[in-house]
Amino acid sequence: MSRLLMCPPDYFGIEYEINPWMRVSNQSNGDRARTQWKTLTQVLESEVGAKLEFMEPVPRLPDLVFTANAGVIHDGKAVPSQFRHPERQGEERYFIDWFTRKGYEVINLDPDIHFEGAGDLLGFPDFWIGGYRQRSDIRAYVQLSEIFQKEIMPVELVDQRFYHLDTCFCPLSGGELLYFPPCFDSYAQNVLATRIEQKKRFAVPSQEGERFACNAVCIERHVVLPTGCPETMAWLHKQGYTTHPVELDEFLKAGGSAKCLTLALD
Amino acid sequence: MIRQTITIQGHIIDSLILAKVLDAIVMLGGSFTLSEVTVGTRREDTSHATILIEAPTTELLQEILKTIQPHGAVVETEEDCTVEAAPADGILPEDFYATSHLSTQIRWQGSWIDVHQPEMDLAIRLKTSPLFAQMVSMGSVKKGDLIVTGRKGVRVFPLERPKERDAFGFMEAQVSSERPHHHIIADVAKRMKAIQQQRKEGKRPGKVLFAGGPAIIHAGGREALAWIIEAGYIHVLFCGNALAAHDMEASLYGTSLGYNLGIGRSVPHGHEHHLRTINRVRALGSIQRAIESGLIKEGIMAACVRQGVQMVLAGTIRDDGPLPDVITDSIQAQEAMRAAIPGVELALLVASTLHAVATGNLLPASAPTVCVDINPAVPTKLSDRGSFQAVGLVMDSSSFLWELARELGWRG
């Protein structure tokens, strides 16, 4: 059974602006956010069959809710994030505490390297892809590939709105890929085209890419994704996936959606 | 040109990160040399590249660095080299930098300076006033000389592929008796003609070095080599006692180690001929006197003296005599050979294991070199000992010299 880490949005809000989605003037609605988050947990637990674990929310850390950025976990090892923006650096110690309490071997990257966890590092079974330039440093992937003994292909993210890899790239359990090509430079687009055959790649249409269609959670043959992505859902159905659209607009105001709200623990 | 070395590591090949960095350097107007690339053997292994960037101005170099750093390029930290005083004559500091025969620079007080006379297996001596760095042998070091130690602040440049598209352009270290020789010999002749032409025009005092063994005389290559020298194609000769002794023996007795060169068999008391030759030359005091006095009228030595070829004769423990010109202290001989190396633009190492390897050790990698021997082990040994630039030719020395002389215009 897949296990995911989540954090209730008790203190979630738009308190600063560190990506183009965030506008302090466009405040999220706390009640709606809590309802949407609750719905997501219900879908994940009862429809998808995931086992959820929860962190304690912390006041004045509104983005702690985006647990995908806690770090990366694999084979009992946890590499915690080292955020680029000072606004999020306060989250690091809570994530590290949680990893330590749960018995993970915590391995830190060199302190001068920025790395934003599973937000920027996603994988297929035989190779991983690491987004860089916006938040994570490319140098992180040299250390991470040594720690996890994995091939990690760095790809440059070129659109500030898609600042983490998981906002424009979603590997699926059957080896397929949902992605939003304009977010990658031409070298990265070539690499993805070389590594993943065309029939297994779905370039999400702009309108759905901008609704964070790629910020989806895939567990076995289930895909949980934001609402408003009909073409992506139709393609997923053709590939034999069951889709679970969830309204997550309150989180999109902060530049996050389903995937950003979860961290895979296995 | 302003230069800067950078390194880049990670899964840089399949991810096209290396390609992106190299493209960026060129697109911005710089150029690069991939001085080292280590490719991971397993998928999870990372690769590593060291890139030397060149740009016409400091500003452009800074722009290139600024562009490629976010893609993982790390500027190699530049530090001055460290130097230590030699503790005694002939003794290097414990951690001395051992040289290669590639073009080398050291960094001193923030600037990179060339190290003169590249040669393998030496040390680097720095003189600070005036600033001058040179490769020096262990034996020639004097107490208190500043010697470069450790590895920091030293950089070595890979050999540039020569512009000429000839046998030396490919630098194939492969040695085989089953490869055609003709085109290599033709290329050697072409280079020799070009060097001679430049000398005649007073453009560059380039030199052709010939290092040879006595098999040249025994096998019948004497006449051809003497012609090549008389025609002015050779400017430096390295050999031992034997080549000179048997060459002059041939002049006096028509034999080489007692074998009549005309009829091809030994003659009575022929084994004494080279001893009697050496004795007569010793009595005259030098090879030059032997030629000038008219004792020796023709042959390789006569041609060298007449053409003013610089000769270094290095002795060995099996020498008879030796001839008066032979330097019997091998370190002194090495120094004399070393002094003749600057300006060598082509080296022919023919039919001598000892002299081929000794000369190979002294030559910079930039000197085109051809090693000719009937025994494939000789060019192989030369290349195994680091003279990777040497083109190996497995053939009889006499056949080589005859063909070379004909390529150069001999009608003999």
Would you mind describing this structure in some detail?
The complex is a heterodimer of chains A (266) and B (412). With 266 residues, chain A is an alpha/beta fold. Chain A has a single domain, classed as 5-stranded Propeller (L-arginine/glycine Amidinotransferase, Chain A), CATH 3.75.10.10. Helix content of chain A is 26%, strand content 21%. Chain A is built from eight helices and 15 strands. Chain B has 412 residues and is an alpha/beta fold. In chain B, 33% of the residues lie in helices and 24% in strands. In chain B, helix 7 crosses helix 8. The interface between A and B is medium-sized, with 26 and 16 residues.
Q: State the oligomer.
A: heterodimer
Between the first and last Cα atoms of chain A, what is the distance in angstroms? 9 Å
Number of strands of chain B: 19
CATH architecture of the largest domain in chain B: 3-Layer(aba) Sandwich
Strand content of chain A: 15-25%
Helix % of chain A is: 25-40%
Question: What is the number of helical segments of chain B per DSSP (H or I, 4+ residues)?
Answer: 14
Question: Helix and strand layout, with pairings?
Answer:
The complex is a heterodimer of chains A (266) and B (412).
Chain A: E1 3-6, H1 30-48, E2 51-54, E3 71-74, E4 77-80, H2 86-89, H3 92-101, E5 105-106, E6 121-123, E7 128-132, H4 139-148, E8 152-156, E9 169-171, E10 177-179, H5 186-195, E11 201-203, H6 206-209, E12 217-219, E13 222-226, H7 230-238, E14 242-246, H8 249-252, E15 263-264
Chain B: E1 2-10, H1 17-27, E2 31-38, E3 47-55, H2 58-68, E4 74-75, E5 82-85, E6 104-108, E7 111-116, E8 123-128, E9 131-136, E10 146-149, E11 154-156, H3 167-170, H4 182-200, E12 207-212, H5 215-218, H6 222-230, E13 236-239, H7 241-253, E14 255-256, E15 259-260, H8 273-284, H9 287-292, H10 300-307, E16 310-313, H11 330-340, E17 344-350, H12 353-362, E18 369-373, H13 377-384, E19 390-394, H14 397-407
Parallel strand pairs in B: 7-9, 12-13, 12-17, 13-16, 17-18, 18-19
Antiparallel strand pairs in B: 1-3, 1-4, 2-3, 5-10, 6-7, 6-11, 8-9, 8-10, 14-15
Helix pairs in contact in B: 4-14, 6-10, 6-14, 7-8, 12-13
